[in-house]
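Sample entry (413 residues):
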Amino acid sequence: MSKSKSISEIPQHRVFEPGKRHMELIASVSRSSGLEKGGDALRDFKVQEEYRLFVQSKLDGYWKRYPPRSAVDDLKHKEETEANLLILFRKLREGILSTQRKDSFATEVYETSLYLSILFRSPSQTTSILSYLLPNLYLASKPSKSGAATFVPLSPNALSTSLLSLLNHLICAYPSQSTFYAQLQDLPPVLLPCSSAHKSDTFSVNSRSYADPQLAVAAHVWIRELARCLRGRNYAQLDILSCREAFVQFVPSTSSDLKHSGATANHSKHSGSPSTSSQALNLPLEALCILVDSLRAKARATAWQVLRRAYREFICTPPSHVTASSASVTLGTPSSRSEEKKDHACPAAPSSTTTWLARSLALAPLSPSVSSRADVQDESAALLVDRWLTERCAAGEVRQKEGMAGRWVVCKA
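Predicted structure, serialized as tokens:
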């Protein structure tokens, strides 16, 4: 028996096995430069779609292990997983960019990459993705049968993406708004029409791009008012404009998104679209909430500096008082009928100072578990303000007055 083997008998590396692709070993287009064997694999449309399904399986595993707003035991492993997911999506975007692919698949990949870069706190990738997504992909045109160029129907997420771009400018350049207004001016009217755009020919021709053109006009008004409140330091109005109910209308629901894009289970299987289980999480809305909350945090820091200079102390309702009264009514603490009637008629409520502070500092969370602004003001304001002042106390900015619950003395710098 010969000791040597023929070339055909030598086992190939698994990345080159016929009929089977090993996605983990696919090289990045930018790193291989086409010199490595299989280095241009992601330039093939079919491979791109297969790779999208592979990345989606990784993403589904991440959501299963780390559900949104859940406690995390191993933060380091979570951050490493997020970084790896962003790398996989970036590798896929490189393949799409190298082929100049501009269709619904490319748009979906860039949109998902954008949302994840915001959720995973990667501002450098957010800026990079937005520069190509707006307006390159959304305004990509294809020749019709007659030979004339016609606009590809806008993605149902084009409006929310435009808002994400503008919010990103407000956050990165805060308190300056020069880049925000430059971007607002550069955005094509078809993506974010202003209130007077409906009179122009441009808007009338392209108004079919959005199912509800007036909703896009409302989004334009909302983002401008938000910037105006920041510039004028109108924090009470900012709290109203930055609540979840103020912008949730600009993001399509997951069901309407599927209906608009025509996605089905069969289409998802072959085109690389996200799985139905992953779409249960509204990524555009989650990304919008994170950017709005980041903007509120910057405004909150500015407002707090103003309040510290203007006031010597704050007299707030201790959260224990509100909780105790609520418990006595809810749990039915033994009491006389007259006292019970009095409690129901006049339940304990946060002081005007407490409510004012919660509103001025925009402390109300953007979590979907908060059903209305009234709930926050009536039940949670005392807890929110007390938590905030306790944090400021640890930072040495305020101190609690001895023997007087709810009284906080401002420590001047």
